[in-house]
Design brief:
This protein has 201 residues and is α/β, with parallel strands linked by helices. It has one domain: P-loop containing nucleotide triphosphate hydrolases (Rossmann fold, 3-Layer(aba) Sandwich), CATH 3.40.50.300. Helices cover 35% and strands 21% of the residues. It has 5 helices and 7 strands, in the order E-E-H-E-E-H-E-H-E-H-E-H. The chain has a 7-stranded mixed β-sheet with strand order 1-3-4-2-5-6-7, sandwiched between helices. The longest helix has 17 residues.
Length: 201
């Protein structure tokens, strides 16, 4: 997929105020320090489409970006470790769940995982909630350039084994690097194929 346009549309905390058209949406979510904004900018080849920050938890709203005039990339707040008050965290965790449960235009969620770390309970619990809620999702492993190939392979094997303790099969996953662009073509090709399949329906 070639990205011909990527434009910010709106930010809000109320799923009822999200765009009213029926274009497919792909939501990106992960822990607050997983490198989500950098990944989005790499995918779109825009330096500052999504705001990156040295302070985790920068994204605190539902952010819609219109891509190629025919689908939305949705940037959601990170979960866990964000430096916000407990009351603020509870508030935007609620609109995250509202978005996933109520947004009919949502086609797929992408759960971002830092490939450098062993499986984290907060990530596993979130994906379990997605499964129980019957919300389709894929995994994006980030920061692959930070590991040597053997270490990356080992970490992915450990993650797969952990997931298979509770899942019948490993969800579709992508290995990416915002620094060198790894995984970009595969990820955009996947979205493009889904969009094509939806159009054919």
């Amino acid at each position: 997929m070639k990205i011909t346009s990527a434009e910010f549309v709106m930010s809000n905390s109320d799923v009822a105020k999200c765009p009213k058209n029926k274009l497919p949406e792909y939501a990106f979510i992960g822990r607050s320090n997983v490198g989500k904004s950098s990944l989005i900018n790499m995918l779109m080849q825009r330096k500052s489409l999504a705001k990156t920050s040295g302070r985790p938890g920068k994204t605190q709203l539902i952010n819609h970006f219109l891509i190629n005039k025919n689908w939305y990339l949705v940037d959601l707040p990170g979960y866990g470790y964000a430096r916000v008050s407990k009351s603020s965290k509870k508030t935007f965790q609620k609109f995250i769940t509202n978005y996933f449960e109520k947004r009919q235009q949502l086609v797929l969620g992408f759960v971002l995982i830092d490939c450098r770390h062993e499986p984290q309970p907060i990530d596993l619990e979130f994906m379990e909630w997605m499964g129980q809620s019957q919300i389709p999702f894929s995994i994006i492993f980030t920061k692959a350039d930070k590991l040597k190939p053997n270490a990356l392979t080992r970490n992915l094997e450990v993650y797969t084994q952990k997931m298979l303790e509770t899942w019948e099969e490993m969800p579709q996953y992508f290995v990416t690097s915002s620094s060198n662009g790894d995984g970009r073509d595969e990820l955009l090709g996947y979205i493009n194929q889904i969009n094509s399949d939806l159009t054919a329906l």
